[in-house]
Amino acid sequence: MEFSLLGPISVTSGSEELSLGPAKRRSVLALLLLQPNTTVPLEQLIDSLWEDEPPEHARTVVQGHVSRLRATLAAGGAEAYGIELATHGSAYLLRLPEELIDAHRFGELVALARPEAAPADAVPLLREALGLWRGPALTGTVTSPPFAAAAHALEERRLSAVEALARAYGVLGEQEQAAALLYSAAVNHPLREGLIAALMRALFRTGRQSDALEWYHRTRRLLSEELGVDPGERLRAAYEEILRAEATDRGRKAADPARGAKDASTEGRAFHVKPDGTAPSPEGGSTGAAGGTATPAGAETGRERAGAAPRLLPRPPARFLGREYQLQALTEALADRTTGESPLAVVAGPAGVGKTACAVQWAHLHAGAFPDGQLFADLRGFGEGDEAAPAEILRDFLLALGTRPERVPGSAQAASALFRSLVAERRLLVVLDNARSSAQVRPLLPGGPHCATVVTSRSRLDGLVATDCAWPVGLQALGHEEGAALLGAMLGSVRVAEDPAAARELVDLCDGLPLALRAAAAQLTARPRWRLARLASALRDERRRLALLSAEDTGIAAALRMSVARLSADDARLLRALANSPDGHLNASAAAALAGSDQERTQDGLERLAEMHLVDEEATDVYTISALTQLFARDEGGDRERGRESGDGTEPGGQGGRPGGTPR
């Protein structure tokens, strides 16, 4: 007879699974199995089975479940296995050999494994232990805090075993195995920093640096948005180790061309990052974080300038289509060397239009023109947490360029000066994503004539155009043809070709925004039997449209919420008023009437909304607001009214704006 806690609660006798009955009866058994050979008071069972006030007959209910469990176990031959469910006054005792419980066997196997000392033996032990899991622990029990806590404790033990198995794989040099194992766990536990840190190191050792860094930035955003905290020491340490190790390895190859050529022949071999930040070569020797033997400070700086070539770009965007005009505009702006200045372009447009994708696509297409490296940073200008401080980004850049941590200046001004000095003679590309303001960007701009910078923002960043001669590159919504092509790339051309009229309608309902179209494609991918017309019909319901155009941690509502959160209270009220426009087309006079404000003040507000791409100025004093923005503003207005009725004085926009619920 075997008892299972690591998945659905079950009991098997021979090859037969015993029928355990309803959730409360399974929960009684689970609680007794969690404390085998120990008396469990009746009151503890009652408290665990009922989250709220238990009924008057709770004792009778529990006694009935125990009686039926006793009969079920007896019918399965419990006595032959030395199993007895006994009553001790007002408590119960499940007496049995503990090795019959899968959670106990799991613990014994994990305890025997020594992933660092004996990795070859640890791997089969840990794989057998993890193989005992058949799903989330304690599945089928009642949803009360005691069972939630017990399931969480078991899940923590499972994750610890996953991390131990990954360490064993790592010691054996099987980095791909370690990365695959950790990836699966990290997807389901995106806020477990130790797990993410281990995954980052494993990915880096397999040569997937951009994936490793992308996991760091994704987790940092989630920590900020979900918990309001910054990355902890373990996650931050992994990030800095990767930046330093990459810079050190490239610096070593540049300083010794013959060695660099030799390393190129072993590029597929694992590159191990030690806890202290040193990086052994594939042959087994090691170099220090700044390149090895001690040298004078000036010589070290020279090597930093000459050697490090970081490649920090995210992965190329999947299924990127079109935007030929904007890509060509970026090429013309950033390839201009006639002025002797460092060229700068600003990719601006509304939320969800694909600014980051366009900038990253161009950066990958032209990475060869910048052999000294490509830097990337998310400035978090439009997010639920605080925007990135320039000092934070400069520290990351300097570490990536090979600067030792103790030599990174503490002030943003000094760090900016050192950054410009290091890159003055380099051919370097800098991509600054999601900027909030020109002031946030300026300290991060390189000064060398061979460097180029791309900035993306929902704001036009007119300040950069005025003071730094930035070249503006605007992104607009996709037309019918481009939008249908994106759907075809996501869903398959055959499925889209079956109903071209519905595809065109979907583009309209998504306002031609790539983010919305991708979310719509995700809905259809999850429902392979749906035709495009069925989703179009669902999206016509304005009450459901924003919800349907969301996919897990991304969506149009979340993106718009972050833009609105940066508005002043007056501008947020104006946007809500514009949501009542019948056709989304209006001038300052009509907008003032809707807002109940004077025309001059309304004109100023409209210009600020246009700068943030929440409205579009089609011609002089002719403004349009998209359907999705109108729907979102109406929902926000409804939330505000409900907040007033409930006594909550907060409202979207301004200092009192609610942070928003859906993560970016």
From TrEMBL:
Domain OmpR/PhoB-type: 1-96
Superkingdom of origin organism: Bacteria
Residue numbers spanned by region Disordered: 248-317, 633-664
DNA-binding region: 1-96
Compositionally skewed regions (Gly residues) per UniProt: 650-664
PROSITE patterns with a match to the protein in the record: OMPR_PHOB
InterPro entries reported for this sequence: AAA_16, AfsR-DnrI-RedD_regulator, BTAD, OmpR/PhoB-type_DNA-bd, P-loop_NTPase, Sig_transdc_resp-reg_C-effctor, TPR-like_helical_dom_sf, WH-like_DNA-bd_sf
Single GO biological process annotation from the record: phosphorelay signal transduction system
Ranges in a coiled coil: none
CDD domains xref list: BTAD
SUPFAM superfamilies: C-terminal effector domain of the bipartite response regulators, P-loop containing nucleoside triphosphate hydrolases, TPR-like
Stated family: Belongs to the AfsR/DnrI/RedD regulatory family.
Name the record gives this protein: SARP family transcriptional regulator
Gene source species: Streptomyces noursei (Streptomyces albulus)
